[in-house]
Structure formats: structure tokens, C-alpha cells
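A common beginner's mistake is to predict each chain separately and then try to dock the pieces by hand. The better habit, illustrated here, is to supply every component at once so that their relative placement is modeled jointly.
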Amino acid sequence: MTELSTRIVAAVIRRFPSPFRERFGTEMLSAFLDQRDALVAEGNASSLVLWRHTIRTVAGLGRALVAVRFDQRRRLESIDPNHCHHERALMRHLASDARHAVRALRSNPAFTVVCITTLALGIGANTAVFNVLDRVILAPLPYDQPEQLVRLYTASRQTPDGREVSRGIDLVEARDGTNAFSSVGIAYLYREMGVDLIDRDGIPHRVRVLPISADYFRTLRATPLLGRTFTRDEERPGARVVILSHALWTDFAGGDSSIVGRSIDMSGERYKVVGVMRRTFTDVVAGEVAAWTPENLQPGGPNNQWNHYLSAVARLRPGVSTAAAQAELNAVAARMRERFPDGPREEYLRTVSLHDDVVGEARAPVYVLMGAAGLVLLIACVNVANLFLARSVSQTRDIVIRTALGARASRLVGLRLTESLVVAVAGGVLGSIVAYWGVRILLAMSPESLARAEEVRFDWRLFVFALLATTVTGLVFGAAPAVRATQSDPSDVLREGSRGNTAGRAARHARRLLVASQVSLAVVLLVGTGILIRSFVARQRVSLGFDPANVLTFELHTPIARYGTPEARVRVHELYQQRLRSIPGVARVGLTSWLPTNGKYHVWGYQYVDDAGVRQSLAAQVRVIDGDYLESLAVPVVAGRRFGPSDRLETSDVALISRALAKRAYGDHDPIGRSFRTDDRDFQIVGVVGDVANEPNGAAAEMVYLSHTQFADNRNWPLTYVVKAAGAPDEIARVARRELAQVDRGLVVYRPRTMEAVLARHLARERFTLVLMAVFAAIALSLAAVGVYGVLSYAVSQRHHEIGVRLALGALPGQVRGIILREGVAIGAIGIAIGVAGALALSRLLQSLVFGTSTRDPLVFVAVTLVLGGVVLAASVVPARRATRADPLDTLRKGNSP
Amino acid sequence: MGRNPAKFLPLAPLDFQVLTILGTRDLHGYGIVQAAQEAFAEQPPLDIGSLYRIISRMLDDRLIREVAAPRDSPNDRRTRRYYSATELGRAVVRAEANRLRALLASPATLSLLEADR
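With all components supplied together, the output reads:
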């Protein structure tokens, strides 16, 4: 310790200016050591005392250090008044340069505004997108040692990449029968579970509940704020304990810490609160959850060798590789096959890094957007470079004259540098405002479509990155021409007159090249946007097999405490349907256990006898429906009948099947009247209905429909109402709530949304990507137009004299226009050609985002070529017309002077 | 010498402490700190950084000078230089003490102290 403190003090002493240090350095250290020895001698040698002494000494030395430096400077100045002259002169120059730069920029507002706006757009767009990228994809998960976390999924030999839910027995075996994981947390994510809570005003609210195993929080290394998490003993049916989220605790319990140990009413049942989680806990797997209950993991019941319904997060032991974990999971699979010979034979658990799993689908669009934002930044840089280049050419004479008159070259270059710096800083400030709002807009647009988007915050590091990129470009292109000008021979430049000097010619070529590259970058962005638009349209045109127009949907959950019998559940839904039908403007009312386009749900075995009399089995998805469900969504009945009032709990079981299932099971034979078996019950097919999109991309599934009035005894089905209105259904939700209160004040109209909103949710990510791409493409297009316009305008002003002479010699205005237009078209053609080639090479990157269209869609390429051709032409017309307005007399009178 | 002690007035409190101590005996760095603690217990403590900054300044101003180490000084590898106040230094600290005394003896100060009591 003494050694360390001595070294610290010595290090501080070394920081003193050398004359002082050489004079007193060793002496100061000696004094420090003497003082410390004295403390030890007094018997005050506790390390606390010694450290306090060290810290005080260091603090004193620090103060003295500053003072000594100050003294030294003052002394030097008093001895030699010229000391610090350079520094002061530099400061004076900088200040005067800045003033000069601001004055120069203000005298040319169009140039300044275009430059700053361009930079602001480039910096803003990039900062916003990089921000989202950084937080969504690059940032680690909000858990301790997140790299150890993996998801466990069920896959099979046929689908090794499968990410299916798992059997409880497998997950419990992975937890208890392996060494690879330090803990395994199991959750019931398959379906969103909810309970009704009565708030302090007596109004019921539905909140989301996640059933979990005892180790769930431990796996994520999350500890409760109050109380405890679950124990293994509680992983059984009827364990009425609950952990509240911080939000629910503050909303419903008023943040009262005495809630732990008390019981609360959840859907009519008493649950004992055992814990409250911290506000900082976020669940990246399950999303927002209001409360957690224990999941039943006892063998038997739903936890059997057939039922796949659970999900798991596991933490690898330190040093255990995923390969080693997989080997253990394969052994688990082998053991389970032995233990349950009648279960599936081909399945096993596999691990997927939790980070990859969470980020997964969000990755592709964010990378594409990042690329697009990068292109916008590139175009912005090119634009600024271009503008500065143009200006520097017009300033060449100015610089040369100043140099000839004795101005120092470094001062002149410094002046240009300051100008570009002022522009870059202004662009950066404006860009940061754009970025700030950009991030907010990104968030507002994508609450659900980007994983972890709720964590996105504004980040200054990324802003600094974008600012640096533009500043460097601005400096290079702002200063390089100035440097060259100071090196040219004044007599050459002055003799050549207003135009045609070599530096100018080279710069003009450079500018044309820059504009052509701008056009090509714009082509790339436009092609990307075009392909995404085509894909989006294809998505929307997908045939769904039902009509989503004017349909309101909402969930209705019947708490088992009050609706314990199938009769009671059938009764309440019938009552409520009647009430809904009596609302003016309501055309049809039906119910389903799962809405179309919401994906796979309740995949059950479908056992039937085929035409050859052989027992067959295949997997079909089961939907429980009631009322006018089919009519509400205009799903046609292809053969047979619908469910009717005669299909009751006590009558014989009947079913409808989808056309796809009928074809798969019975080929071209009529399935009406045939029987099949599912969930240990026999059903008779009474009708065949049209196929309905089960996935958002329009894919249908083989489907069995059962009647709720008949199948309510299977379980307490959570049902979704489907209400077809005569007009816009927005108002109906309110009335539906009022009517429900008449039936049962304790029930909740949960998550009302139109069917169109349900569909839009699936397209949210596509729409988000598309809108941003369109914005970037629009920026690119306008910047390219500005570039072309700028280059041609400048050419016209430079060739003023030449054009005047041509006109005086009898050239027709059309010919003069042609000269300028040709230049524009040449630039555009080169740019478009390069851009199309680039887009062909790059559009493959969009592959994973595109649906139902080719990434080399010729229509898109042709359209983009036409659009950009049109824009280039339009940007060329104005300068070309201005050229013909040159008055020959005026020109000739002025002679060669600029 | 011939320099006017009044030019250095008023002295900063720490300067006053150091110069007073070096006016009575020759001391090395830590010795000054120690003596200051004993002599001016109520005053803000003198730290090594400030001390050597003051020493440096006073050497330059010829208020103090380096003197030979006394015979009884411990003979180890540590650097200990001894300092003593010069005639000018003594004159300056005396002038400062007089200035302070005059200040304290002024009726205005006395009435202020009176009122405090």
C-alpha cells in the first residue's frame, strides 16, 4: 500500500513543469514520506489514515500544479512580452477567420442554406437509423452475462432449424437431467394468458399474466424488489401465488409494500402475492407482462408426451459450449424416446442464442435501412463537396490575387477551412435536431414491429460519428481546391481571365463526376424502394379467403370461477351475441378461438379412415367458432351446411373442415357424412368451408372447425368476437362495452381492434421499412436534382461569354439550349448506367424482405430510369433556358471581364 | 538588497506562516509543515504542494534562501534542503505583522470585535 501511494504521489509530482520539478521534485516526495513516517511514528498507521494523507497530499499537489503553471506563464510574459504571441495570434486569426467565414456564408445564403440542409439531412438520417440499429441489434440484452443465455426450441430431423414450442417433460428433463445449464427457466408463452383485475373504482381490467417455472427469474438473473420468486413446490396445479410487475404494483396496489403476503382477486380467484419485481426488469422474450404465476410442471395432465406448449430460456454454465449443451440435449431426447415409446420419435431440443433469437427478424430491415442511410450520407457529402468545389473555382481568382498581394497561403487555406467547418457545425446542429425527432418518429412508427424498440434512446456517440464523417468531407473538399489555388502561378490565372484556367477545368470534370455518382447512388436507393413497394403491394393483394372490411374484433375471457360449467359459458356468449345483434349498425356477430392470419394454433391430430379403409393420421389446426363467424368474415360454405341451433352440447358431435383438409384427406371424394377423431372424440363432417389465410402471407392451413355450443365442455375457451358492421365499426366497441356490462359487470371487452388493424399489424414492419426507404429515396432524388441543377447553372454562368459570342454569331437559342441539355443528359446517363449496375448487384440484399416479387424486377428498373431521367432533364431545363437569355450585346460590351 | 518590503504586502496567510517560521529557525520542507501545525493550529493546514509553490516563489523573490543542513539532520537518502528567511524576508514578515497589528488595533476593528462578543 505504501508503495502504491508513493508511486501515485510521485506520478503527480512528475506532472509539474520541468524547471519546478527539477528544483523541488525529490524534495516534495521526501517531505511527503517524512510526513507519513511521522504519522506511523504517532501510532496512526491505520491504512485509512495513510490513504487520507495520500489523498490530501495529491489534492494539494493538484492545486499547486495549476497554480505553478499559471505563475510560470505570468512570469514569462512579464519577462518577455512576446511570449505566447503565437498562441494569441492564432486565437486572433481563428476569431477573425470565423467572422470572415460567417460573413462570406451570409453573403451567399443560397449556397449556405443548401449546404447546411444537405448536411442536416445526411447527419440526421444516419444518426437516427444508427441509433435504432445500435440499440436494437448491437446492444447486449439487459441481463447479467447475456452471452450465456439461450432459448430452447423443439426441432426435428426433418426441420433442424425448427423453433417450435416444447413438451414440458423435455424441458424438465433438460433442467434436471443435464449439466450444461446452470439454470433453465420455463414459461407458457404459447398463448397470451390474462386475468381480470378489479381496480379501485370497481371496473374490471384485463392484464397479461405469464405462467413460469421457479427458475425463470434466476435464469435471467433478475431478483425481486419485494418478497421472493417461486419455489419448485409451487410448480403444481392450483398454486394460487402471484408475483406482480412493478407497473401493476404501482397501478393497482398503489406501490404499497405490505401487499406481499396479502391475497388479491384475479378473475374471481384469490392469489397470494409473494413478490414484486423491480422496475428495471424487462422481459425481452415475453414482452410486457403484468404478473407471473407458477406453471404446473407436474407429470400428467397437459404435461404429457404429446402436448407441445412450453418455451424455455436457459443459462449455459460458464465455459460450456453450445455444442456440448447440444450433445446433452440429444441424450435427453434419446432418454425421452425410451421413456415414452409412443411419443414422437424424431424430435429433440436445440439451443438458439437468446440475442440472435430476440433480434432475429428485426435484423434484415434495420441493416437495409442502415445501408440506405449510409447512401444518403454519401450523397450529402458528395453534394457538399460539389458545392464547395464550385465555389472554390469561382474564388480562385480571389485567392490568387490575394496571394499575389502578399497574403500568406496558410491564412487563405485556413479561411476556407473555417468556412467549411462553420457549415459542418451548423449542419451538425440542425442534423441533431433532425435526428432527435427522427428517433422519436421511428419509435412512434414502430412500437411493435422492431424487437426491443422500446429501449431505443437518443445517443450522442452516433451523432458524433455522423458529424465527423461530414466534417472531414467538408474540410477536404473545402480546403483542397484552396490549397491548389494558392500554388498556381498568379500571372497564369490572371492572364486567362474569368474562365478556362486549368484548375477550373479539372474541377469541372471532378464536379461532373461527383454529380454522376450522386445520380447513381439515387438510382440504387430508388430501385430498393421500388422493389419494396412492389413487395408491399403484392403482400396486400394476397388473397385472404375472407373479407376484413368493417369487422371489429375483441377478446372476451370468461373467468372459470364464475363460468365453471360449459352450460354457463355457452349461455353467456349466447346472451351477449343477442345483445350485440340488437345494436343498430351491427350486421353479423360471431366468435372464434383464433383469428385468421394470426398463425399456427391448436395443431391437433386428425385421425380418419381413407378410401381404402386404412386408418390415417395427420395434423390439422382446430378452431372453435360460434354464431355467424363464417358470415361475418364472408367465408363461403363450399359443401354441406353450417353449424345450427340444433348443434348443442347434448347432440352428437359435428364438425366443418376446410377445403384444403378435405382435399388432403379425401381427395376428390365427398367428405360430408364421414367421421374423424380428434382429442379422443368422434366428429361427423357436416360441411366444407373455403380456405382462409392462416399466415399473414396468405398461406392457408388444413383446418377443423368445431362449434362452441357443442365443444364448450372441452375447456374454458378464450374467444374472440368478430362483429361485422354495416359501416365503419369504430363506434361499436364503446356500445359493445356498455352491452357487456348489462350481461356481466365483471367481464372485459379486451383489445378491441378492427380486422384491418389486425392485418396492418402483420404488415407494420414492411410498412416501416418502406416508409423510411421512401423518405431516403426522396432525399436522394432531390439531392441529385440539386446536384445536376447546380453543376449546369454553374456551367452556364462560366460559359456566359462563350454563349454570348455564339448567339452574336448567329447560333439559334435552341442550339445553345442543346449544348447545356446535352451536358445534363450525359451526366444523367452515366449516373443512371452506373446506378443500375450497382442496384443489380445490391438488390440481392433485399431478398429476405421481399415477398412475391423479384429483386431484379424489370418494371422497377425501367421506372427508376425514367424517373431519374425525367428529374435530370427537369433540372437541366432551367439552366439551359437561362443560357439563351444571355444578351450578346451585353456580353460583347463587357468583353473579357468577369 | 535595497528593496522595499512594503512592495510585498499584504502577504497571503500561508506565505505569512512560512515566512514567520523561517524567520525564527532554519527548517526543511516537512519541518515547516510540522512547525506550521504547531504554531498556527487554527489556520488552514499547509500541504506540500502549496508549500513548495510558496518556497519557489519566495526563493525567486529573495525572501528566503537555502542554507546548509544542520549537523543533527538525519542522514538517509531523502533530499532535505533547509531554508532560512533573508533579511528582506524578515523585514517583510515584520512589516506584515505590523500591518496586521495596526489593522487589528484600529477602532473600527475593535468595535467590530466588541460587537461580536
